[in-house]
Each structure stands twice: as C-alpha cells, then as structure tokens.
Write a structure and sequence with these properties.
Length: 192
Amino acid sequence: MIRWFGRVAALLVAAVLLLAMQWTTPFYDRKTDPIPVYGQIGDTVTARKFTIRLETVQFAKQLRFTAYGKEVVRDTSGLWAVVTATVAARSESTLVYEADWEGPTGLHYSLSDRLSGVKSLLSGASLQPGLPRRGWFIFEIREDQARGATFVAPKIGLTRLDSIVRISLGSGTGSLPVADSLDLDRTPGTIP
C-alpha cells in the first residue's frame, strides 16, 4: 500500500512540475524578442547595425514643404511630431527601417506616409559606414501621446534576435510647445 501511495505521489509531483514548466515557459515570440538598447534624447545610442542620436523633438499643427516644384501644406487633427536625428551605419551598409512613436499609454504610431517629397526624411535611408546622415523622423500623433513618449527603431515587428533602440523623449511638465506651422525646407534641427 505504501508503494502505491509513493507512486501516486511521484506521479502528482511530476504532473505539477510539468504544469509549472508549461505555464512559466515563454512563447517563441518572447524568446526571440529584439534586445533593447536604452537611451535619452541627446545620447548617442548604439544598436548592432547603427548608431542614432536624437537631437530635438518639435510639435506642430501644420507642416509646409516644397515637393516636385509646388508648396505643400499638411494639416492634422492631432500633432505632427518632428524628431531631428543623426543616424550612422556601424560596420556595414544598412537601411533605416521603420520607427515607432510609443506614447505613454502604449499606443504605437508609425512614421507618417503623407510626406512624400520631403528631402530630409530618414525613413528608408541607406546608411554607409563613416557617413552619418542627419534628418527627420516625422509622426502624426494624438496630442495626449506627446509627453512621456519613447522613440523605437527599427520597428519591433521587423527585427528578431537583433537590437532595437528605445529612446525616452522625456516627460516634461508645463505647457507643450506647439508651433502653428513648421517649414520642412529648412535644414533639419534648426528652429524657425
């Protein structure tokens, strides 16, 4: 009888251990998540393939630029977030994929696709080692997602077992500086 209880107890312990392993083992997506590299605005953050330094973030209700010989004006019901950055490849040619604006509530915003013709956009830019590029990442966001945001590049879904940068854009207090209009024909990083 004691042997029988011993076998049942061993079987129960094994079942509990198997259930615990099943519940605590991460899913494949979690095991192959990108490896984050953290930084603050103004820091040079180094990922495996590139380095990036975010210089400024400007907000505006309207963007103006010249595309194909005509002046273009883009309005938004939210805010335009214009992130000035310098990006450089490290040891091999690489592309700047997508980037995300991650709001304080976890909402993700992709780069705006309403700005074709802007010369200094960094999305889709080909980077060569030793030749840093300076330009803009531009997002169209809700106004309540401006403070306490995080810049994420490349976009999380595009990289597996690689590094991504997560740059805190600061929390800030007081009123949010929002320009009525920004001119994108100027040099990236200059304040109008």
